[in-house]
C-alpha cells in the first residue's frame, strides 16, 4: 500500500505555518474543529483530524487507521517498533515489554527508588534558593527513573536525556533538517550498544526491568527488536513526565488558589496531573495511514491516505470539555486523549503519573519553601508535535 501524499478528493486544504504552530497551535486547532475537522495541511503533508469524537473513533479502528505508516519519521529515527506496528506484532512486543510498567510493579519495584532520586536532586539545589527546575530537576528525574525501569544501568541520566532530545527532534523533524537526523543517528547507535550490553547481563541475571522482561518473554523477542523499542521508549519516556511536571508546576504557581487547594488536599495532585496533560498535551499528535477507503468527519478518505490524530486538539474540543481552553481542577471527569487510546495506550502512563503526581510535585512544593516564578524569565511553551516549557526558572526561601 503506497502512501498518498496529496489531499483526498473533497478535503479542504488549509495552509498552516509550522513556526506559528510551535508558538501556539491551539487557535489553529479551534478553527479547524469549527470549519474543517478533517483538513489537508501541505506544510505537514497529511490530513489533520482534530475533533475528539473522530480521534476516538479512529483509535478504535487500528485495522483501518494503521500505525504502519510509510515514511514515518519515527521509523526513520529508531527503526521498526511496537508504536508503529499493528497486531499481532504489536501485541507480541507489548506483552514482552509492558509488565514492569504496570501500576503494582511501579508501586512495589520502582517507587522507593524514584523517591530517593527526587530527594537527591533536591538536596543539590535546595540551598541555592533558585533553579531552572526542568533542567535541574524534572529532566534528570525522568531520565534517571527511566534508566532504572528500562534496566539501563550502563547509562547515566544525562545520557538518557540527551538521547531522548535527539530522537524526539528526529521524530518531529517535518522540516527535514539534516543536522537533526545526524544527532538522532548518533543517539540511536549509542542506545543499541547500551541495550546489547544489558541484554547479555540480564539473560544471566534477570532484574525485573523492561529489557529483562523482553529478554525472558514467553514469545521470543530478538535483540534488534529490543534495541528499537528501547529507543522509542527513551524518546517519549523522558519528555512526557518532564513536560507534564513543568507545565503543571508553572500553571499552579500562576494560580495561587489552585495551588493552595492541592497543598491542602494531596489527593488532588492526581487531578492536577490529568488536567495538565489534557490542557497542554505533551504529545500533540501522531500519524496513521489508512489501509482501506473509510469515511470519517463527513469525507471518504482513500486507502493510503496519511492522517494525523491531533490529540492536543481533541483535548480542547468544546463539545466534550466545557471552557476547554481553561485549566480547571474541578473539571467533571471525561477521559482525555493525552496518553492515546486503543491498543496503543501509552505504556508509560502509570510510571509518569506516579513519578509526577505522587512524588515530584509534592516533594518540590514541600521542600522548596515559598516557591515562586522568577519575574521576567524567558520561560515559554513551545512545540506542536511535542509541547512543553523551554525552561522553568524559580526561586524560594533558604532560611
UniProtKB/TrEMBL annotation:
Keywords: Heme, Iron, Metal-binding, Monooxygenase, Oxidoreductase. PROSITE patterns: CYTOCHROME_P450. Pfam families: p450 (PF00067). The keyword Chaperone does not apply. Belongs to the cytochrome P450 family. PANTHER family: CYTOCHROME P450 YJIB-RELATED (PTHR46696:SF1), P450, PUTATIVE (EUROFUNG)-RELATED (PTHR46696). This is Cytochrome P450. It comes from Streptomyces violaceus.
